[in-house]
Design a protein that fits this description.
alpha+beta, Deoxyribonuclease I, Chain A, 2 domains, 4-stranded mixed sheet, 3-stranded antiparallel sheet, 7 helices, globular, disordered N terminus, phosphatidylinositol-3,4,5-trisphosphate 5-phosphatase activity, Inositol polyphosphate-related phosphatase domain-containing protein, IPPc
Amino acid sequence: MGEENPSSKLSEILRPGLVAGKLLRRRRLVSGEDACHETCTQSETVKYRVFAGTWNVAGVEPPDDLDLDDWLDTDANSYDIYVLGLQEIVPLNARNVLGPTRSSPATKWNSLIGDALNRSSSSSTAALFSCVASEQMVGIFVTVWARRSLRRQLRHAAACRVGAGVLGRLGNKGGVSVRFMLHGTSFCFVCCHLASGGDAGDRNADAADILSRTTFPCEENDELLLELGKGGSFDGWREGHVTFAPTYKYHLNSDCFYGCEKKEQQRAPAWCDRILWRGKGLRQERYERCGSYRMSDHRPVRAVFHAVCESLPLASN
């Protein structure tokens, strides 16, 4: 029951353009034909081949025997990562746009994609490719597949859905983004489905709006998660998955982050308020920020747990 609509200021601060700018300042990026290569050190690069595909399937359910080998160029057997964006995997009628997400078409498409990529494999345990991330918003579907040999190097996969359809927010149009880290390099792919007809300027504005509202959790550089991963000070402690917006630093009685105003020093929002737990018999049910309290420059955080306790007989008098 966490907040699903972070403040607009958050999207302004964490928009992909600004994040990319920070990465450009922090890391020497390769360019041109080496744009997909990861810079491990100043003198070493690792080369990967990334296949990107898009297909508007017009709301048609794929047949069980659909052969995707030609589209995916599986005969080449030379790609390390596949990123595929589909549009209209369900008809864009009122039931599908306003009702719960129909996940069965996405499941079927993923099954067909997996079959095509692993057709040459002798068994399921020796599959060449596995799905590392997938996300659906109404009819937009993005799925990422990588060679199994890369699974240990591919981390922090996350997705974001931005509706730009009816009322500027519903998911009949919009964008679904998937990002991941490969070694130390961040990749982000955005699959957009924009309105047809009309003014091209409106589509350009929708595309810019989708990018400006695309945000991801900043987990790979989170100090607490890094310490939990290393053990040491927090050995044995656990934390629920952080999906809520940053809790610090806000202007008092406002939803604006400090640094939003031009006259203020720029600073990144932070997740300073956390709840850790350890012990047997505990299962975390909720972990969320409470954004309605604005009296402080921090936002409160809450967690709910199920606890299993030993029941001891009461001593008789």
